[in-house]
Amino acid sequence: MSERPILAVTVGDPVGIGPEITVRTLAEAAPGDPARGVAVGDPGVLRRAMRVCGLDAEVRAVTSWELPPAEAGVVDCFDIDVVGEAELPWGEVSATAGRAAVRAIEVATAAAMEGRAAGIVTAPINKEAIWAAGSEHLGHTEMLGALTGSTRHNTMFVVRGKKIFFTTRHVSLRKAIEQITEERVHAGIQEALTALRVFGHDEPVLAVAAINPHGGENGAFGDEEIVHIGPAVRRAREAGADVRGPVPADSVFHQLVQGRYDGVLSQYHDQGHIPAKTLDFDGTISVTVGLPILRTSVDHGTAFDIAGKGVADAGTMRSAFTHAASFAGFADRIRAEYGAS
């Protein structure tokens, strides 16, 4: 790799807002930035995005990771040669667009696995499009797991330097509550502590959120804290970890921002998403932990309704790129910890 770490930035679905937020992010890059971004997609797709965004920058097609950095005002694009110069209709599900999205992920992941890139930053994909292209994966994370041979992947939100983890993920609230068991919470604690250490917190302090109002009020409002969450926390503490909780959810995230903890293990999807996005919507990014490579991502979709209008806000993509640059130094730790998962 060049002296500055390279980040492979996939453009996502070429008819969504991914190309627009990618070019806005990379066109702003300066030679002195801590990392160098290389878009992964079709150069023609990026040139069209440049036009709709009104940007005065050049797209340079490349087919190798071993090349001098682009000059200011030039965006390098690793050519995947799927769409070519065709202009697909904006905001419409397309098998061709799906193939391009999948191919970009494959190329970027291979570069990271081979050490040619320090990590990947991903723009949003459309599930219907990748399925139309023949993919059997539910989404980005599952695809990355298959490409890297990892089955351990979890989500870590990062907002203003603080980390948020999840015991359960994309299930209904009713199912999430049913899935709260001592074993699942304990496993979530261990994965969160591991991720915190990998990403630079050598002696992490982790808070575990309660799930019921006021932490259950000693069983008056539910017994999950007594039966499942509390015992999982005690097991971790008895093993020597600095784990606090269960802490009522109406205060634990405020305490996180105050600096009492390095991270919080939330119990269900919205419990962690709402405070993070309320605090800093554009600054909240997703890191997939458990993969043997660094991967950061925006936490929004393809926004087909505004694609091609040049109005998409690139704030979250900028944040995902900036965080990836700051985390690039942990690439060896990530590979060492998760490479055999």
From TrEMBL:
Any one GO molecular-function label of the UniProt entry: metal ion binding
InterPro entries reported for this sequence: PdxA_fam
Keyword presence, Transcription regulation: no
Keywords: Metal-binding, NAD, Oxidoreductase
Pfam families hit by this protein: PdxA
Record flagged with keyword rRNA processing: no
Family: Belongs to the PdxA family. PdxA2 subfamily.
Protein known as: 4-hydroxythreonine-4-phosphate dehydrogenase
Species the sequence originates in: Allonocardiopsis opalescens
